[in-house]
Design goal:
The protein has 182 residues and is an alpha/beta fold. 35% of the residues lie in helices and 20% in strands.
Amino acid sequence: MAGLKVVFVVLTISFSLGGNWVGAQVHHVVGGDRGWDPANSDLTSWSSGKSFMVGDTIWFAYSAAHGFIAEVNSKEEFDSCDVSNPIRMFKDGLDSTPMDKEGLRYFTSSNPESCKNGLKLHVQVVPYQDRPQTVMPVVATSEISALAAAEAPSTPSGSAHLGSNLVLLSIGFALLGCVMGL
């Protein structure tokens, strides 16, 4: 019962904050649809243009039959495919690692041949910052639809945030009261 109360408290806080801290995290699946695959050893192209921020998570999907994934300490170990002293070895076929601090992280295939063929990844983890929101383009087919499709302000007013947060906070406290028997 105490565990359920904790869940409700966390959910209440999350909703009252508008879910902003929950939505900040991005999950990156290394290699995209193909995953960490020896046939797809161009992980540099996959990672180019991506931002890896503190709070994000990197997921590795791979076949353990092709070798494991090692996180190594240095650029020298990364460049030479030296996995003799890894920070961590991923062996399950589906693993994740949080990007919990800034800096460079180095991941290589434990199979020396695959690593030398490019099955390795380095990422620069940068401090967390708000990511820009993607806006869907609207195509107007007439003057009337152009007026209808006019873009609203991208940032809601402070009163809109306050009102929605107050409602969510009230609902959360009501739920909490029900659970605690108040």
